[in-house]
Amino acid sequence: DVKVTQSSRYLVKRTGEKVFLECVQDMDHENMFWYRQDPGLGLRLIYFSYDVKMKEKGDIPEGYSVSREKKERFSLILESASTNQTSMYLCASSLWQGTVGTEAFFGQGTRLTVV
Amino acid sequence: AQSVTQPDIHITVSEGASLELRCNYSYGATPYLFWYVQSPGQGLQLLLKYFSGDTLVQGIKGFEAEFKRSQSSFNLRKPSVHWSDAAEYFCAVGGGAQKLVFGQGTRLTINP
Q1: Distance between CA atoms of A23 and A68, rounded to whole angstroms?
Q2: Sheet of strand A73-78: strand arrangement
Q3: How many CB atoms lie within 10 A of CB A12?
Q4: A37 vs chain B: nearest CA distance in angstroms?
Q5: Partner residue facing B105 (CB), from A33, A42, A50
Q6: pLDDT tens per residue, range A10-67
Q7: Which residue in A82, B23, B62, B96 is deepest, having the highest Cβ count within 10 Å?
C-alpha cells in the first residue's frame, strides 16, 4: 500500500517561529501536494511539486514556502508563523501518468496551532 | 478555472436509510472525478474515481457514484448506510494539471 507519512500529528508553535512540516512518501510518486483544511472551506492547495526541485504555487501560497530536495520528501515551511495559519495540514502524493492524473494518497494530517 | 460545489454542508440520515451526497463541478475539459472520505482525526481515503467509460462507478464500502456530463454532477450514493459511515465526504475534480480541486465537504451524521 502507498504510504504517506507526515512527521507530526500535532504541533503547537509560537507566533513568529519558523515552522517545518515534513512529508515522506514511499511509492516513488512524482507529484506531491500540500493542502490546508479549514471547516467550511474544504481543502485548499498551498503548493505542489511534480518533480525534484520543481514547485508550483497553489491557491493560497502566501506565507508559505516548500522544498523538495529528494523525490520522496516534500517539506512545507511557514517562514514566520501567524495565528491565522492555525489549521490542519494535509500532504498528498500521486503518480504521474502522462497527461492523465491519478488519485492522490493522503497522509494523516498535521494539526498546527499557532499561539 | 476548475471548481467543485457540494451544496450540502451537513446531512443527517437514519441508519439503514439510503444516502445521496451531491457534487457539481466546473471544468473545461473531460474531468477526472473523485470522492474521498475522512473519518475524525484521519487523513482522506479514496472511495471511488471516474476517469472514463461507464458513468456509474462502484467504490469501496458499498458506495457508488454516477457521472452526468449534462448536469456537471457526480453524486455519491449508498443504498443503506451504517453507523460507521458517519464522516466527512469530499468531492474532487482533477485533470491534466495533475492537481485536485476539492469541494467544501459534506459532514454526514447517522441517527441510530
Answers
A1: 10
A2: A4-6, A19-25, A73-78, A64-70
A3: 10
A4: 9
A5: A42
A6: 999 999 999 999 999 998 888 899 999 998 888 999 999 988 999 999 999 999 999 9
A7: B23
